[in-house]
Design brief:
112 residues, mainly beta, Alkaline Protease, subunit P, domain 1, 7-stranded parallel sheet, 14 strands, 0% helix, flat
């Protein structure tokens, strides 16, 4: 669906544009951006940005930004830079260098 050097290697996975993006998991989705990777995730989604990674966790989400990491079921990073959501339901709204590291932990943004 456009883009350059993108790879959709999971069953029903999709990469929709961008450059050098990877979707490995079952029904994983990467929508544009550069260097994004939805690795061992089922239904994981990355929406643009740069160098974001869903390491594992079903239904994990990264909504843009750069160098974000989601690791856990329902974990989410909503943007920003160098943010990490680690744990079931962990959530980072944005900002820079924030870490939500526990089940259902949340960080609302700003600097880490």
């Amino acid at each position: 669906m456009g883009g350059y050097s993108n790879y959709a290697n999971g069953v029903h996975s999709t990469v929709n544009g961008g450059w050098a993006n990877w979707a490995y998991g079952y029904a994983a989705i990467v929508v544009g951006g550069y260097g994004n990777s939805a690795k061992t995730t089922d239904y994981g989604t990355i929406v643009g940005g740069y160098d974001n990674t869903i390491v594992s966790g079903d239904w994990a989400f990264i909504g843009g930004g750069d160098d974000g990491v989601a690791y856990g079921t329902y974990a989410a990073v909503e943007g920003g830079s160098d943010n990490q959501a680690i744990g079931t339901g962990a959530f980072v709204l944005g900002g820079i260098a924030n870490v939500a590291q526990a089940s259902y932990a949340a960080v609302g943004g700003e600097l880490g």
